[in-house]
Amino acid sequence: MRVTAECIPCYLKQAISTMRAAGIDDSRQQRLLEALFPVIAGLDDSKTPAENSSLVLFELYRLLGPDDPFREAKVRSNDLARTFLPALEKVIAFNADPLLTALKVSVAGNVIDMGIMPGFDVSASIQQELGRDFELCDEQPFRELLEKGGPLVVIGDNSGEIFFDFLLLAQLRSFTDDITYIVKGGPILNDATLEDAEAAGIPLLAKVVTTGSNYLGVIPELCSGALRSLIGDANLVLAKGQANYETLEGTSFAGDKTFFLLRAKCPVVAGHLGVRLGSSVLIRNRVNL
């Protein structure tokens, strides 16, 4: 997926969100934004939105200093997500289709970062997700590959949400115990890292490996050799979130064994998928020839 002009305001919004999370005052925010303009002007429009966003954020992080600006927000997201686990575990267990429900729970977790903002009703959002169908759904081929067993790679997305992924992994373990869960190699936005995986108990159900970098998404030529091998050897890959879709969709590296599970929160991504903004999808990768 390639960038469009609509991606440029998003780079700035992500930068502002990062500065607010870091507690930067308005006057300094403006100066820092101005310092990012040369980086944005020099971005390669043949790259993916996630890769270009990463480059802008890397420069911002350099200017802000070594501390993770989202550290406290990630802790709050994790704490909030943990409170929903007992109820959601029962919802999955007593549903006629536990796997499909666990997939919906996992994508519903994408709203947890919104839940730390006053006035946002996480419970209502989760209920909405559980009560609707995926707008695009390649569930049958996903199940067919899953039922073959063998190595499974799950590429995670955000903190908070990672607790809901624990419930999905518990269901996936019914099909294979050879599961690897991928997190970022370093902090960027609220993306899940090793620290979040350990907090969520992911090592109890899967081997945890990092991408080897803190780029958004998984950029084949920039990820670690270990991750390239894991994806190459996997029978099935489940990639969560928009950034993983942006960087992996259409690639032969991901192949047709990769499925994307995400909520289309961005107009550009929704348009690329051909779905309504805010829709959730489970789709198989179509390799560009």
Describe this protein's structure.
Helix content is 50%, strand content 11%. The chain has 289 residues and is of the alpha/beta class. It folds into two domains: 7-64; 71-284, Rossmann fold (3-Layer(aba) Sandwich). Helix 10 links the parallel strand 3 (179-183) and strand 4.
Q: What is the level-2 CATH architecture name of the largest domain? A: 3-Layer(aba) Sandwich
CATH fold-type name of the largest domain: Rossmann fold
Content-based structural category: alpha/beta
Tally of structural domains:
2
As a percent range, the share of helical residues equals 40-55%
Low-confidence stretches: none
Task: Give the helix/strand layout.
Elements: H1 7-21, H2 26-41, H3 49-64, H4 71-93, H5 98-108, H6 112-115, H7 122-130, E1 136-137, H8 139-147, E2 152-155, H9 161-172, E3 179-183, H10 194-200, E4 207-210, H11 225-233, E5 236-240, H12 242-248, E6 258-263, H13 267-273, E7 280-284
Parallel strand pairs: 1-7, 2-3, 2-5, 3-4, 5-6
Antiparallel strand pairs: 6-7
Helix pairs in contact: 1-3, 2-3, 4-5, 4-9, 5-7, 5-9
Keywords for this structure?
single chain; Rossmann fold; seven-stranded mixed sheet; 7 strands; 50% helix; 11% strand
